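Reading is simple: each integer encodes one residue's backbone shape. An example follows:

___
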Amino acid sequence: MNQNFKQVKLKYLALINPPKSEVKIKENIPVSFVPMENIKSIGEVDLSIVRPIEEVWDGYTYFKDKDIIMAKVTPCFENGNIAIVDNLENGVGFGTTELHIIRAHTNVKTEFLFYFIQSDEFKTAAVSSMYGVGGLKRIPTEFLLNSKVPLPDKETQRRIISFLNEKSDSIHSLIKKKQKLIDLLEEKRQAIITEAVTKGLNPTVKMKDSGVEWIGEIPEHWRLTKMKYIGDAITGLTYSPNDVCDEYGTVVLRSTNIQKGNISLHDNVYVNMNIPGKLFTKVNDILICSRNGSRNLIGKNALILEKHTGLSFGAFTTVFRSEYNSFVYYVLNSGFFAAQLGTYLTSTINQLTIGNLNNMEIVMPPLKEQKKITQYLQQETSNLNHLIERIEEQIQKLKEYRQSLIYEVVTGKIDVRDLEVVQ
């Protein structure tokens, strides 16, 4: 650490989790409401939700303009759910209970603390301090209070903030451009899938009206049916905190284990309890996120491979089990499925029920044609997936560079005192 920086505990630099008793309640006053999914990325917050203060007073976390809000639970903390909030409705906000609030004192600049808690040094220590099991690990308040901050003088803080703002803006701009390219490739992938699972591969085949608006015409020899007639939808396992154990138990798959159409086992919950046989995964099962606080995650799914069999799955997920799943998997990743899903979700309901899934329409070609379509889509989507993965790797390297830069600057290893400050 730079010898001109002092080591000061965070509790002497900021108020941690200020009490809401400082708010003077006014009847019917509107305030901003921020669920975790509205903390979009580092520094970006969606403040579009406004609620009467009476609705959010109990059971939520209070903050005000200029406060730092930071996710305290895994994996949201590691994912960078952190921001300085401003322009809140009436200057006041409430959010998920899974937030820590940091309010800088006058002896430190808020933006300097904002960058410090993004540094690798702080993040590594914070993750090590987490308590709890599985996906319920949290950063304790005590850790924040006693975290040591390398504190320079106010002028150096100002120069550090200016330098990192400029560098971060450039990096964010590059990341957004690359993310836009990913979005376009994903749209192309979905369009290819939708065309194949609703129209087939033969452009000259005779068509007929499906009778369903969002499907349109389908090949004359295909049949329109419902999901419940081609397989079984199974609600996941319900378990209590007392059932959760260490890694020697049975893995219970959750929505966080569904990543980019595949099963990821990097954030697991284990249980020790009696589990019915049908609640263990089998080859070619489709695991679907059926309930989540974020509407955008409802319907995301993954095909179960041999290496992921024998696991269980939680109550906020559903398994669809069918002999036709190699084809059905692509249907569930088509615009056709997304259109139907949208009719069941509202601003207050983020759930795909068993009943809704069972009654969803699906177009079924003959089995031989299903296999040809599946082979075609495996090849086409594989090529696009490789392109997307390469761009995601580039984005990850940019994020790692930013993290490294923040650490070097906030600890004084890179001296910015002689650099020109943008006013």
